[in-house]
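writing this on my phone so excuse typos. first protein, seq and then structure
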Amino acid sequence: MSVASPSIAAAAADTLLAVRDLHAGYGGSEVLHGVDLQVGAGEVVALLGRNGMGKTTLVRAICGLHPARRGEVVFRGERVEAEPAHRIARRGLGLVPEGRQIFANLTVLEHLSAFERARAGPHDVGASAGAPRTGGAAERIARVFELFPRLYERRTNMGNQLSGGEQQMLAIGRALVTEPRLLILDEATEGLAPLVRHEIWRCLAALRASGQAILVIDKYVQRLIQLADRHVILEKGRVAWTGSSAQLDADPSIWQRHLGV
């Protein structure tokens, strides 16, 4: 099995995302109990764990979609745990949410154009913290079509006319047109056919090769070992294990202990 080489980004001073002692929950129930997590610039980190262990809650708290009760979320050197989601996004965070959340009455091209325009411009109050723009809108959309040729073929189709795999490609594409410094994918290949899953993994490998920082949730551990630099396993809202792809690949007992049904 091909294993991703250890990342030098994690050890570098340029830490893109740092989550420190994060607590979050719903009502009287606490879901996250002091979670720590880091993603370096250009690094791919996999977030693993059985269902109900707090992965999606953690992602939502990072993105400003769910309030943190205690702790810090530091993104690109600034604390953001108290900021609204749209301001965090404009700092350079792109989310591909669980369930895709595609608009039924927008075409593929309209989706991409709307998200491209929503990216902070030079006068936006959050733009100074956002990622630098490269090229024009048409060029950014063209890069998505190059990554996903199927989306170009379906560019005039409405969201509700797309297959599940095409919707996932579109969800990734609309995040990419914002040129995120960090791309977060919640359940990257959930419910997709094997051929479509292969296409998503191909896309993520290409993004990794280009230097895109990624935090990804998925259940296919063997594919994540090939893709990710490091892995963080959550168990009952706490970090149960963290280590490199080489370490995870070398010890299947970690899978059985923390990820087995």
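second protein below, same order as before
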Amino acid sequence: MNDSAAESAIARRWTNRALLKLIWPLVIEQMLAVTMGIADTVMVATVGEHAVSGVSLVDAINQLLIIAFSSLATGGAVVVSQYMGRRKNKSARLASRQLIYVNTAVSVVITVFALCLRRASLALIYGDAESDVMRAAETYFLLSALSYPFLALYNSAASLYRATGNSRIPMLIALLVNAINIGGNAVFIFGFNWGVAGAGLATLICRITAAAVLTVMLIQSRNSAISLSGIFNIQIRAGMVRSILKVGIPSCLENSMFQIGKIMASRIFTSFGTAAIAANAIAAVINSFTFMPAQAFGMAMLTVVGQCVGAGDYSAAKRNAGKLMKSSYGSVFLLSVLTALLMNPVLNAFGLTEEAARIAVILLWIHIISTPVSWPASFILPNALRAAGDARYCMISAGISMWAVRVLFSYILAYPFGMGPPGVWIAMVLDWCFRAVCYVLRFRSGKWKEKRVI
């Protein structure tokens, strides 16, 4: 197929109807992911504020540790989608296997380190936390670490399905995961009274199930462009691994810096007591609803722009990126308004103390006012750049923003300016604004069109 034919084919593929078909399962999947987080938090909250606080502290570290294989999954999705854009299905299958090999190895190494160093890392980062919060955190961290290899497999397999434009399968698996997680929480927390350990065990079981189901499906799909048939006949293709790492490593470093910055900022909450920690955790769960559709558009951006770039159709890449960004802004605005309207009844459901509820309201208003302006450009648009292979620019911009803006101003606003916990969230907004400016200028410059992944 010549270039012009490939370009017209890719342009015909991503019609508005095709985009909708890709996006709606992603939106539901994001809703299910947030629902699972809220279900965990509400169920654990019945054990006490110390349990909610302990789980929230571990989740911050969890996000840092799982970033490596989440980023590799992004790199694999970009490589596979570009091969599909070029109609090179055999190469796409080989790249799919390389992703599984690399991600599994990385996740096992991370698991070993997390199990060996979990207590030392918690003590180092959250040494000021109260003793009952620390005990809950240690228990939850142990069970979380055991689930890392299965989460890596699930992330890799789900990203491969999305790279082909098939978002329905990951959505159905997300439904299964939610059912297992909520049912497991009910049995282990309420039935057996295992508290935080019950929540961690339910999460472990649902991640094992999700990884097993998706991996088996890919092994059995012999004619698919992402088939893992023959995966146990290991063949390492160094060139493909380098292509995956070319996107994955900058994304990993970027997200790691982002999460380390969040952890450093979260230490501020520990100095203001359990009420501040709980308020931050609950406010973060509630505002995550605002991002759900937009995050789905961001995931779609990797597939659509990746395939367009692979086919060499940069005009289609830019046009579709614009459509997805407009949709992201619209969804964030509408859900921010809904969050404002439902804030008080939702907060009441968590059973917070009066002090924790007061802090949570302030944090949520900061979020509601700022998110529709800056969040989509700072977190959705960079996926268009990554899909084209411009991950290094995203990494550098995000690193500067995190350390020079978010971390620095979190401490300045919280302590010298006396703003306390709200100061951390204001610094977060400043970080978003800085990133948004960097990414918009880069996308408009067109320099991302000069990058190559495969």
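DSSP finds 15 helices and no strands in the chain. thats all i got for now
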